[in-house]
Amino acid sequence: MLDVRRLRLLRELALRGTIVAVAEALTFTPSAVSQQLSALEREAGVPLLERTGRRVTLTPAGHRLVRHAEAVLERLEQAAAELIDTRQGLAGPLRIGTFPTAARAIVPAALMALAREHPQLEPMVSEVDPAAVADALRARELEVALVHDYDFVPARVEPGLSTEPLCTEAMYLASPNAPHSSHAPHGPHGPHGLTDASDATYAPAAAPYAPAAAPHPPTAAERPGPGIAAWRDAPWITATPGTLCHTMTIRACQAAGFTPRVRHQVDEFATVLALVAAGQGVALVPQLGLAYPYPHVVLTPMAMSRRTRIAFRSGAGQHPAVAAVATALRSVVPAAMRDPQEAPDEQAPEPAVTTRPASA
């Protein structure tokens, strides 16, 4: 009989490439991982690994066994979900991963909704970069997580994981609201193409812990203003290299025919907007990043979007706790963000930001 824990190690080796990486991810020693994989080979009765010097690769039999391991692990997740579903009520810790914007704008309201329906659940939230979510879920450090992707940085298909859509955000070009600013594009609003102060007004969210909601994504007819290329000569503010947000900005600018001249690199959108308001550059900001009032910032809608998805281990989607979190998250996302073609329902919070296109 093949040991399930050893099958999981083989699957991790196929994903991570080295025994050292598997050991670091699962908090084992490399020697312990090697011993367990050797034991799995003895159980299987055929070579699963090929050792060349210090490198280890999977044999064809090893790759075939990994495919079976994926199916076995998914069925075990489904079995655990069915067993938990027989209990009376949900209780105990539930580890949730999220990226910073959602941690502020969506998760607190969802936790309140979750507490009302399942008071015995103990959600534990951790900020996790979307790039690290797959490893954290597979290592069972998280039960559910929020991830995002952009038009220019599509989501990867991660083995052993499943996702469900949560919301879609509009993207905005944030620029300084100063007529003399050298960061402004040329356009129909005078020599710099900027709107005046009345073109961007700000207000706090409608209620404590209500998700921030900018206007629903503009339609093509509402996009007569300058595109990204109009800011090719401006200094840019991006996220730090290696993040999805940084890659998104670089690729969006390259698609418009230029490489941005990056002046500042920060990951928190509140800081990004503060730097824009101070005249330090321009930046691309998603809808949920617009909760704070910066009266000296002009927001121009872009023909781009960011999508947020709920991620979990394959087979765990029907786990009652995972399903409860997904339901709570969806209950607090404004209808306009769930479906841009649909008007917000009466329960959705008032917009935190009101804008109009850069040109009338």
Structural description of this entry:
The protein is of the alpha/beta class. The protein folds into three domains: about 5-85, Winged helix-like DNA-binding domain superfamily/Winged helix DNA-binding domain (Arc Repressor Mutant, subunit A); about 90-165 and about 310-340, Periplasmic binding protein-like II (D-Maltodextrin-Binding Protein, domain 2); about 170-300 and about 350-355, 3-Layer(aba) Sandwich (D-Maltodextrin-Binding Protein, domain 2). The chain is about 35% helix and about 20% strand. It has eleven helices and twelve strands. The strands form four sheets. It has a six-stranded mixed β-sheet, sandwiched between helices. Strands 1-2 form a two-stranded antiparallel sheet. Helix 1 (about 5-15) packs across helix 4 (about 60-85), helix 2 (about 20-25) packs across helix 3 (about 30-45) and helix 6 (about 105-115) packs across helix 10 (about 320-330). The protein starts with a helix and ends in a 5-residue tail after the last strand. Mean pLDDT is about 80; it is low at about 185-225 and about 340-360.
